[in-house]
């Protein structure tokens, strides 16, 4: 099944804010030692919306994030931000252009404080020291991290560490934020808080969010539009109701998740 056949609702039909733009991957293919990780994958992330990306382990999700954020380059295909080709930009260049990401394993400066971690990201984006501090304090306040500001990043509870990763990404003033399994290991209360946080980031700051996670309840509760990858290919896409209703395809590619898809979180 092609991506165009998989859904009757295209991302272009979504009602977008006036300042809308897109981060778009078009026809992306990538192989490693002859093994194809991605095959002609296309995906769009509109500003002001949360786009979910799901699929089994080995589906190519992390490879796609690496390509979108400049840590890898595709063999074939292109990446465009607001209709400007950024395929060949490095990770640093894409960050300066407005594409930020989190990592599955933190990427924190563990000897620095929570506040200093966010300041470093703001400084790397070109802010002066005073502006970097103001930016960091504002972001910590938004993410309810101010009480942790003076503590070492190496001694944080897991949920706080995850939020700090998001805070560091926000300090680069992105237009698009790629979240790679940001909710792994969170308890139910932390998960709900995180869901509210990313909704606030997307809606209030007009940031396009790509949310990748294995927690189907989070994905279906938070996302405006969902892509399913399997075997490095687009196999299904649409709004949450469209994807949820295709239980046969979802179960075939994602294992025993049909019961989860049938129970949306309010």
TrEMBL record:
One of its GO terms (molecular function) is ATP binding. The keyword DNA damage does not apply. Coiled coil: none annotated. The keyword Oxidoreductase does not apply. One of its GO terms (cellular component) is plasma membrane. Residues 23-256 form the ABC transporter domain. It holds the Pfam family ABC_tran. One of its GO terms (biological process) is L-alanine transport. It comes from the Bacteria. SUPFAM superfamilies: P-loop containing nucleoside triphosphate hydrolases. Keywords: ATP-binding, Nucleotide-binding, Transport. This is Branched-chain amino acid transport system ATP-binding protein. It comes from Alpinimonas psychrophila. The lineage of its organism: Bacteria, Bacillati, Actinomycetota, Actinomycetes, Micrococcales.
């Amino acid at each position: 099944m092609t991506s165009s056949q998989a859904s009757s609702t295209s991302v272009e039909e979504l009602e977008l804010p006036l300042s809308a733009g897109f981060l778009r991957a078009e026809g992306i293919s990538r192989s490693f030692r002859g093994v194809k990780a991605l095959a002609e994958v296309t995906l769009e992330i509109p500003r002001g919306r949360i786009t979910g990306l799901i699929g089994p382990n080995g589906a190519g999700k992390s490879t796609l994030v690496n390509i979108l954020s400049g840590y890898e380059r595709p063999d074939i295909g292109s990446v465009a931000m607001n209709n400007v080709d950024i395929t060949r930009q490095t990770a640093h260049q894409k960050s300066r252009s407005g594409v930020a990401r989190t990592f599955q394993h933190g990427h924190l400066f563990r000897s620095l404080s929570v506040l200093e971690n966010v300041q470093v990201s703001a400084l790397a984006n070109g802010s002066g020291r005073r502006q970097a501090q103001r930016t960091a304090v504002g972001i910590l306040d938004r993410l309810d991290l101010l009480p942790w500001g003076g503590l070492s990043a190496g001694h944080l509870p897991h949920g706080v560490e995850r939020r700090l990763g998001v805070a560091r990404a926000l300090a680069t003033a992105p237009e698009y934020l790629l979240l790679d399994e940001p909710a792994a290991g969170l308890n139910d209360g932390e998960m709900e808080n995180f869901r509210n946080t990313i909704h606030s980031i997307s809606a209030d700051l007009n940031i396009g969010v790509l949310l990748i996670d294995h927690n189907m309840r989070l994905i279906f509760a938070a996302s405006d539009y969902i892509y399913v990858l399997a075997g490095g290919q687009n196999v299904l896409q649409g709004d949450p109701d469209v994807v949820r209703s295709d239980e046969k395809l979802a179960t075939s590619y994602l294992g025993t998740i049909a019961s989860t898809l049938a129970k949306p979180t309010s």
